Amino acid sequence: MPRTEPAEKESKLPPLLSSRPLPLQLVLAGLVPAAFGAVCGWLLGISEVAYIIAAVPVAIVGGAAAGFEHTVPRQAAVRGLIGGALFGGFILIVHELTGKAAKAHLPDPPVVLAVVTAVVGSGLGALGAGWRRDAEAREGPFLDVSKLSPAELLGAVSSFVLLGSLWLPWFSTSSNPNSKIDSAHIGANSHASAFQTFKLLDLALVAACTAPFILSWIIARRHTLTWHPGEVTMVVGITALVLILCNGIILGKPKPSIEVSLSYGYFVGLLACVGMFISGYLRQAVYTDARKPPGVL
After folding, report:
1. What is the pLDDT of residues 4-36, one digit of tens each?
2. SS3 for 198?
């Protein structure tokens, strides 16, 4: 006999999918991922940045949240597999219908995208169900925001500032006709944002923006770590700072580097990285009572 999900106990957790009416189950498990995939398919021909943000971090959160509506990981994995396939499939279908060139890279053949989203969706679903079972077994609220400190607030603000800075002008060209930035495809008297200039650094910085939120999740979920909470955020903040310094000051400005100057967005990004570093430092040095293991500085 297939294993069924137990009846939902009274709790503050979201209701189980099995407790909802059948039409609503079909909408949540099928229509929602298909519709979101259609939106991402449209964004694919409009903006690389918007597509990546929607198709990666937002979709990951959605997949885990869907799994959180289950207590049996196998059932959540099946839902994630179907939802992920619908999500990836409708990205390709709607993008093909728009007839626009893809702003972001697609695998070859494109159907690989649907396979990847299906597999990832299955894993996220099982992960969410595991969180659900852990939340029901653990005493206290699922997320205890009282455990958060001003350090996490500083980290969240710094992340948003860093993310926003990527749209601001990072580099400017002069009136010299030879002053241009090849990677951004701009000429004289122009400005280029980080997203226009870089091909990999901008994605690395977007990934770095998640570190303070992962730290907040760990703190609010009361997870036990083998290292001080905040140390990873410190490392991410200083790494992002060094990467920005290298791509502008230490290793020079974007090619051909003829009368190319740093603009204010560059310094906003640096300041945000410093904020992330400080937030991690405050969490591990000021707001954490646990003692460090022997031999750790």
Report:
1. 555 444 556 788 999 999 999 999 999 999 999
2. coil
Q: What is the pTM of this model?
A: 0.70
Whether 159 contacts 213, CB under 8 Å: yes
What is the sign of the dihedral through the CA atoms of 210, 215, 221 and 223?
positive
CA distance 221 to 206: 24
Q: In this structure, how many other beta carbons lie within 10 angstroms of the beta carbon of residue 43?
A: 23
Within 13 Å, how many C-alpha atoms sit on residue 114's CB side? 17
- Which phi and psi (to 5°) does residue 259 adopt? 50, 45
Residue pair 165/269 in contact by the 8 Å Cβ criterion: yes
125 phi-psi bin (left φ>0, alpha ψ -120 to 50, beta other): alpha
Angle at 40 between CA 195 and CA 95, to 5 degrees: 100
* CA within 13 Å, CB half, 244: 31
